[in-house]
User: Which sequence fits this backbone?
């Protein structure tokens, strides 16, 4: 039990050296993605006709299901609100404008947040925000903890629960492989009404506001995704407010800083843990010697 | 940047073309604000409006006749998953006349030849402008803006030939010209009774059938600004209510709207018959359009009921008396009209005393053969 | 390590009626566990896209880590603050922590979709310093290693100089023996470094477990969502440390029919009301600052669960343990410590399951029979391993009056049982 101060510090230092390395790597990671220049998609639910072609294109592109094209003309699926699943990265749901009682459709998929909570949560960095805009997923890294699903404020990631050995987290990939080839996402390419517009986020925001200004009678003056949880790559225009829809009402502040502030506060240059270590060491040293205290209850 | 440049160049081309025509024909100039949101657009910041739909002016003075238009167009430029669309242009053009003519669809229709959609709208997936839909979007939006509102259906095969496909879908239409345009037969209501918030006379009786049949009005005479979906929205049970101004404007084209009591009453009005005016219409007059006797542009009022007031050229030589129900015999055909019709009052019963002394009456001894019509 | 010299392996028959029941439960649990590893989560759990986490996370992992807090709190008290008389409970607490964390990892593996990738966070190429889970994982991993290192002297004490491995492993006998000797010789010199490291690591990941759900602010019920959740997790873990040691000590003494360390346990129980009061104070302050009080009394099921958690798990044991008569009686200690333990488990279930409100709920989550069997089975297996280790290693202190290896007299056994009941 006798360790002199120098020895103590030497071992303590060595022990935390590799932790320090981890901390350094985490903070050095360039998070400086210019969100205006990332790609995004503007979903204009006023133009959308709810034809579900995007579902077919997505399922075909990612080989999720092989249902034939005509089966997507079945509109009875609109009777309930569907959610993205492990075998359906995007789904279209129908809502009714309470003012005009007219129907409009909302396509749901991963929003590809500017500050994704899932990527902040991921223990191995399997999810990350790419410079082009997609929040990508690397199944090889994934350990299957599903913390991303807990973290996602849109409840988008789905899990292959039925896959016993190699389950994956499945969600819209933003067709990152197509973007690399210079192509638009499959859903955007097929959209017959061009309700989906692909472009840089800045262009899309200008365009969204332009459309609202040009036809204020058609649009509710709100671009969903412009500011939600710090902004998302996918944004929505709608004829009415989003209160009735499944797009949740969310704060403007990004989510990751909440936990990351706590996290990095506790580990600020490893000073708090080392300070605690030092204080405990000092206490241990100064209170040395068996204490003869009466047992007193 | 490249796409912005393309829009910019496109706009310059369009604007200069328009400007050229303006000079030639002295048409209204294209306003900057038609395309730009700001006052001073620069090449760096062009502040273009999203899409010229219904924004670029339909230049006044350019009229196109339905007959100039093609009757059938096959849209096959971008056929891919689905086959081409056989578009019956004639029927659609007829329908468009109900709204705002050609520019219902051809929102950019300068003088001269109307450009086809693909002239402005790029091919799908081409790096076309973000502000204007590509050809695919343009086609679908144009068609579905009406089709979807009517049927609430977006079934692709309504328009598209299934791929691989052959033949074309038949479009049935009854071209009875009731609307002035080819449109299937519409049942016109006889009388409509409206309750209005005008206390002295809450009831307005509108003789719809009368307006169509008696006054010979076409649907578009009153229904000038109707939207197809006003009638064709199958799911909307309640139609949009017209505003007071709109209602009065519809009648105001023909009726003066300063005398409320003319339409507003405390009870339902009986239907109009010409007999009430003291001039029951005979079977010939009955068939006439009101305006045939009552001059256009003037309030309908009492007319001179002398035949010659209208039939100025009638004389004993050219008038076929048989149309009155009496085919004059040889003798009487030679007689002057006024010999029987005293003072040329044709509404009064004719007298025989001018020639005959035997107190015979017209009824007992008609001067010819009576014809039943 | 002279002060541990009075600890010795407990002599008792391994199989008793109780252990047979435990063995059956553990067997069923292990069978379910193996079934899950090969047939996937869908066939064994009721987890879905709305509820990605179930009882394997809230009970096996989150509650497991909290209940293993006895290890670091006792070590801090006895070794850092030098309250030497508590040394008798350091080794049982250490063993509880070591096994607790081992079974936390085993339980976690069941929940991980790709359990064979559990080592990935160790690869520098996959370090993700922004992830709370990464911090928890790394701390748990390092702390588990520290716990094994802390346990090594006990192994050395037992087997140094008499390593006798069976069969072909005999050739390793000399190597293992010399390694144990080296461990015993050098490790004991630096053991204090590891003890302090263990306390620091515990503080870090106990609190970080509380940060886990902070990432879902929009999905959490306001009663449990708090930015200072990490502090509350740490305080509740510290508070549950001693009750866990008391509970485990009483149960094992009953099971092995040796007298409980009542004076030590009563003495250590004095700290618990203070720790619980601090925890309660922070909780009340948090509710006040966040203006969450209306939710406490809105009469919903969640508010009732919250009230039950606070009253039964915090207020009741805190009040009970301030009464000296309760602290002096084994039954009183057992009941109060059970309440604290139950309260903390209740809290972890509430935070990870009850408070979690999916955006598009279709059905509510209730664990499947497999999930329950794995959870209960792992607890049973832990108890059995604990029993095996204390019967083979010097963990539990010898009863002061009876020499090692001699079975206690019938007289005080009966007396002790009376005391318990």
Assistant:
């Amino acid at each position: 039990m006798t360790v002199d101060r120098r020895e103590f510090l030497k071992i303590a230092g060595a022990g935390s050296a590799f932790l320090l390395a981890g901390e350094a790597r985490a903070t050095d990671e360039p998070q400086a993605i210019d969100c205006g220049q990332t790609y995004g998609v503007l979903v204009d639910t006023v133009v959308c006709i709810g034809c579900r072609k995007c579902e077919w294109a997505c399922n075909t592109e990612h080989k999720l299901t092989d249902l034939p094209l005509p089966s997507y003309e079945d509109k009875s699926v609109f009777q309930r609100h569907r959610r993205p699943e492990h075998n359906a990265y995007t789904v279209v749901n129908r809502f009714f404008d309470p003012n005009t009682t007219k129907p409009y459709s909302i396509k749901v998929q991963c929003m590809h947040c500017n500050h994704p909570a899932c990527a902040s949560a991921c223990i191995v960095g399997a999810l990350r925000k790419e410079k082009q805009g997609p929040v990508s997923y690397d199944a090889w890294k994934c350990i299957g903890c599903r913390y991303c699903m807990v973290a996602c404020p849109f409840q988008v990631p789905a899990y292959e629960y039925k896959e016993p050995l190699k389950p994956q987290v499945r969600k819209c990939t933003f067709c990152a492989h197509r973007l690399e080839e210079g192509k638009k996402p499959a859903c955007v390419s097929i959209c017959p009404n061009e309700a989906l517009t692909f472009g840089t986020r800045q262009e899309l925001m200008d365009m969204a506001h332009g459309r609202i200004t040009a036809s204020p009678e058609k649009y509710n003056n709100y671009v969903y995704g412009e500011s939600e949880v710090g902004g998302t790559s996918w944004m929505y225009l709608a004829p009415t407010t989003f209160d009735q829809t499944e797009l949740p009402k969310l704060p403007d502040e990004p989510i990751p800083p909440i936990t990351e502030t706590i996290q990095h506060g506790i580990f600020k240059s490893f000073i708090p843990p080392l300070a605690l270590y030092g204080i405990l060491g000092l206490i241990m040293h100064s209170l040395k010697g068996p204490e003869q205290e009466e047992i007193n209850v | 940047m490249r796409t912005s440049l393309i829009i910019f160049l496109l706009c310059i081309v369009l604007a200069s073309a328009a400007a050229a025509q303006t000079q030639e024909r002295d048409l209204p100039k294209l306003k900057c604000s038609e395309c730009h949101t700001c006052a001073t657009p620069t090449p760096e910041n062009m502040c273009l409006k999203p899409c010229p739909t219904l924004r670029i002016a339909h230049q006044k003075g350019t009229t196109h006749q339905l007959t100039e238009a093609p009757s059938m167009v096959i849209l096959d430029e971008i056929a891919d998953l689905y086959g081409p669309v056989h578009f019956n242009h004639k029927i659609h053009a007829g329908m468009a006349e109900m709204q705002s003519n050609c520019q219902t669809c051809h929102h950019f229709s300068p003088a001269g030849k109307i450009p086809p959609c693909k002239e402005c709208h790029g091919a799908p997936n081409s790096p076309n402008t973000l502000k204007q839909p590509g050809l695919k979007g343009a086609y679908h939006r144009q068609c579905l803006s009406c089709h979807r509102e009517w049927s609430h259906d977006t079934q692709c095969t309504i328009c598209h030939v299934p791929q691989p496909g052959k033949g074309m879908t038949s479009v049935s239409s009854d071209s009875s010209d009731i609307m002035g345009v080819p449109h299937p037969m519409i049942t016109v209501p006889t009388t409509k009774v409206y309750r209005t918030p005008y206390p002295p006379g809450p009831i307005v009786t509108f003789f719809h059938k009368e307006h169509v049949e008696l006054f010979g009005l076409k649907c578009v005479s009153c229904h000038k600004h109707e939207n197809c979906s006003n009638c064709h929205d199958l799911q909307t049970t309640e139609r949009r209510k017209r505003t007071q101004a709109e209602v009065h404007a519809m009648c105001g084209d023909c009726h003066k709207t300063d005398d409320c009591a003319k339409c507003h009453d405390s009870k339902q009005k009986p239907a109009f018959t010409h007999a009430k005016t003291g001039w029951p219409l005979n079977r010939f007059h009955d068939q006439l359009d009101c305006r045939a006797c009552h001059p256009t542009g003037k309030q309908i009022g009492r007319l001179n009921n002398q035949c010659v007031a209208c039939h100025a050229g009638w004389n004993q030589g050219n008038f076929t008396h048989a149309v009155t129900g009496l085919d004059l015999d040889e003798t009487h055909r030679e007689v002057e009209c006024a010999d029987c019709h005293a003072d040329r009052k044709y509404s009064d019963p004719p007298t025989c005393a001018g020639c005959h002394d035997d107190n015979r009456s017209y009824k007992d001894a008609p001067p010819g053969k009576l014809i039943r019509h | 390590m002279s002060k541990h010299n009075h600890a010795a392996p407990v002599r008792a028959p391994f199989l008793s009626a109780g252990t047979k029941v435990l063995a059956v439960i553990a067997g069923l649990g292990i069978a379910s566990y193996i079934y899950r590893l090969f047939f996937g989560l869908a066939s064994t759990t009721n987890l879905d896209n709305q509820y990605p986490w179930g009882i394997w996370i809230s009970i096996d992992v989150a509650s497991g880590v909290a209940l293993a807090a006895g290890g670091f709190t006792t070590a801090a008290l006895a070794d850092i603050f030098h309250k030497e008389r508590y040394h008798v409970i350091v080794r049982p607490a250490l063993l509880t922590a070591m096994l607790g964390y081992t079974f936390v990892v085993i339980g976690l593996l069941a929940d991980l979709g790709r359990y064979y990738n559990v080592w990935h966070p160790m690869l520098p190429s996959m370090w993700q310093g922004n992830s709370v889970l990464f911090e928890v994982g790394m701390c748990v991993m390092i702390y588990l290693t520290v716990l094994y290192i802390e346990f090594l002297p006990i192994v050395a004490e037992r087997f140094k100089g008499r390593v006798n491995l069976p069969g072909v492993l005999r050739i390793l006998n000399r190597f293992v023996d010399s390694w144990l000797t080296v461990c015993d010789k050098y490790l004991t010199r630096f053991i204090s470094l590891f003890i302090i490291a263990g306390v620091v690591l515990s503080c870090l990941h106990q609190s970080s477990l509380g940060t886990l759900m902070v990432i879902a602010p929009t999905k959490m019920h306001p009663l449990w969502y708090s930015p200072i959740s990490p502090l509350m997790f740490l305080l509740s873990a510290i508070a549950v440390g001693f009750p866990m040691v008391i509970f485990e000590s009483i149960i094992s003494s009953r099971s092995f029919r040796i007298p409980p360390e009542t004076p030590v346990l009563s003495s250590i129980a004095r700290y618990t009301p203070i720790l619980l009061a601090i925890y309660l104070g922070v909780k009340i302050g948090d509710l006040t600052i966040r203006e969450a009080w209306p939710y406490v009394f809105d009469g919903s099921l969640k508010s009732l669960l919250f009230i039950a958690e606070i009253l039964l798990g915090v207020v009741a044991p805190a009040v009970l343990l301030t009464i000296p008569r309760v602290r002096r009686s084994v039954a009183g200690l057992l009941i109060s410590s059970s309440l604290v333990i139950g309260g903390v488990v209740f809290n972890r279930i509430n935070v990870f399951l009850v408070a979690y409100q999916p955006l598009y709920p279709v059905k509510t989550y209730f664990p499947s029979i497999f999930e329950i069997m794995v959870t209960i089975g792992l607890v049973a297996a832990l108890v059995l391993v604990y029993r095996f280790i204390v019967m083979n290693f010097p963990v539990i202190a010898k009863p002061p009056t009876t020499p090692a290896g001699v079975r206690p007299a019938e007289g005080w056994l009966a007396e002790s049982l009376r005391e318990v009941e």
Remarks:
- Residues 173-211 of chain C form the longest helix (39 residues).
- Residues 47-357 of chain C form a domain with the Formate dehydrogenase/DMSO reductase fold fold (CATH 1.20.1630.10).
